[in-house]
Amino acid sequence: MPAARDRSGPEHARPVTGDPASARTVLDAADLSRALTRISHEIVERNHGAGDLVVLGIPTRGVPLARRIAGQIGGIEDRPVPVGALDTTMYRDDLRLRGVRALELTEIPPTGIDGKTVVLVDDVLFSGRTIRAALEALNDLGRPKAVRLAVLVDRGHRELPIRADYVGKNLPTSLTEAVHVQLAEYDGTDAVLVGPADLGRAASAGAADGTAR
Amino acid sequence: MNRHLLSSGDLSRDDAILVLDTAAEMDTTLAGRSIKKLPTLRGRTVVNLFFEDSTRTRTSFEVAAKRLSADVINFAAKGSSVSKGESLKDTALTLEAMGADAVVVRHGASGAPHRLAHWIRGSVINAGDGTHEHPTQALLDAYTMRKRLGHVDGLSVAVVGDVLHSRVARSNVLLLATLGADVTVVAPPTLLPVGMSSWPCQVSYDLDAVLPKADAVMMLRVQNERMNGGFFPTIREYSRRYGLDARRMAALPERSIVMHPGPMNRGVEIAAEVADSVRSTIVEQVANGVSVRMAVLYLLLGGPTDSDASLGEGEAR
Predict the structure, then answer these.
(1) Is A4 contained in some domain?
(2) Which among A14, A101, A105, A102 has a CA at the least distance from the CA of A59?
(3) Does residue A79 form part of some domain?
(4) Which residues of A touch B18 (CB under 8 A)?
(5) How far is B311 from chain A, CA to nearest CA, in Å?
(6) Cα(B62)–Cα(B77) distance, integer angstroms
(7) Which of B12, B30, B41, B317 to mutate to test the interface with A (most CBs of A within 10 A)?
(8) How far apart are CA B149 and CA B217, in angstroms?
(9) What mean pLDDT value characterizes chain B?
(10) How far apart are CA B76 and CA B273, in angstroms?
């Protein structure tokens, strides 16, 4: 397992690498908070309330985003919203190209997903391959009534016919750029940055999640 | 981590923790699901090559591989060309030609998996070689301790019984030392191998002195089938001095667990009432074995292997 060598554990707090000076801030903490508030309201509006909702975050940074969105919906509708995490690693199509990666947390609320409206939450929507893996993982877990997708940033460059239902910010990017989402839970601050792709990391096995390419 | 899993001693602390963490996530991922299957190893072939009898290890590897969607071929030496006199090497080359991505091997000769690893391109997983090693058993034991007691680092573990003939003992001592546990091997002098001083553990001949501070006690089976001489006067005397009965279990600290790799000789190294007590993790160990072997198979076979070499770098996104 050659690629596992530098991945000795679940990476809960991978720091943002690259030259911070050359990265520009696209969303600051207040923008990010407003985007999540809007997404939460949109979900409630289109779902006609919080009934039968289950919010699942895709690790790593989708999970705290899912918790925040579920918390806000709970506040709007005055009822708790089931929230969990869905790791897609075992369903990825690039393991054989890039090597194995450590598994992340999967946590399905005890209510299950059968007959529910599942809202998947991720930080960056890029190729769409993570979402494809998540849909396949959901398929093995049960049969939701509907599956929706909420992302903080949609940076384009889709490789599969997948689109988001709720988008915090559409961000046209070049393939030579990298989008870094920073969240207080992991990085101490809330922000979305765009900078040149960190070549060292793009070549590594860990580059497939939303923060890089 | 290496391409093969031949010895617990080959695992660094980071490797071992990666396997245990992965096994834990396998557990939570599959818990409560009706479809206990993951697509990760679709198209990979795992060969179970067993030259010695085994029920739990072979079945455990088979279940683990099938839950990851790998194709499993069971190859028992009985009823194969081995009984016609085919050598280990020729058997290995045959399996290689059939495209095995991993060979899980159990063999009566210590070191057979190491030889095999030189002959074939796929991964070799040692499922027990003679009296040498059984690394996945050690991993599942460590996983069981971590699950029951919260951690392995700093635990005081007693490994008791027929250490001389035990591959489980060697693998466990090496792995537990790597993970920071404090291991004491307890056995009559006749059932200890030569060169114990090089093992990363303490040695005691007195079980009663060790029990009061042991967080986990691992009982080993007296392997009569490997014994060709008098290692102790009678089974009864062995059992009195080194068997774990209810009285001895009462001397253990309150949270301690009792482990056994199986198969058990009830009434010899472990009393029936101990084996069936709430402290016993024996059935749990079997369940954990599947999760740990899934983790090992995933980490060894999930990434690029030789059979993917034709894909090349150019296709990497």
Answers:
(1) no
(2) A105
(3) yes
(4) 4, 7-9, 102
(5) 8
(6) 17
(7) B317
(8) 13
(9) 91
(10) 35
pLDDT bucket at B53, cuts 50 / 70 / 90: confident
Residues of A in contact with B22 (CB under 8 A): 102-103
Is there a contact between B298 and A90 if contact means CB atoms under 8 Å apart?
yes
Domain with A78 in it = 29-172
The answer to whether residues B240 and B281 touch, using CB atoms and an 8 Å cutoff, is: no
In angstroms, the separation between the Cα of residue A106 and the nearest Cα of chain B is 6
Does residue A93 contact residue B43 with C-beta atoms inside 8 Å?
Answer: no
**Which domains are seen in chain B, by residue range?**
8-134+286-311 (3.40.50.1370), 135-282 (3.40.50.1370)
Q: Which residue of A has its CA nearest to B21?
A: A9
Q: Does B195 touch chain A (CB under 8 A)?
A: no
pLDDT (tens digit per residue) in B145-194? 999 999 999 999 999 999 999 999 999 999 999 999 999 999 999 999 99
Give the CA distances from residue A4 to residues A161, B18, B260, in Å, rounded to whole numbers and listed in that order.
31, 9, 31
Judged by CB atoms within 8 Å, which residues 58-117 of A form the interface with B? Answer: 87, 90-91, 94-100, 102-108
Does A42 map to a domain? yes
Asked if the interface predicted TM-score (ipTM) of this complex is over 0.90, the answer is no
**CATH no. for residue A51?**
3.40.50.2020
Flag whether A45 is in a domain: yes
Residues B176 and B20: their CA atoms lie apart, in Å, by: 13
Name B7's Cβ contacts closer than 8 Å, sequence gap at least 6.
B126, B132, B133, B135, B171, B174
pTM score: 0.87
Angle at B6 between CA B296 and CA B161, to 5 degrees: 100
CA–CA distance, A127 with A132 (Å, rounded to integer)? 10
Residue to test with chain B: of A12, A63, A89, A96, most B Cβ within 10 A: A96
**Chain A: closest CA distance from residue B94 (Å):** 24
As for how many domains chain A has, the answer is 1
**Residue B22 near residue B295 (C-beta atoms within 8 A):** yes
Picking from A1, A5, A35, the residue whose alpha carbon sits closest to that of residue A181 is A35
A197 neighbourhood in chain B, CB within 8 Å: none
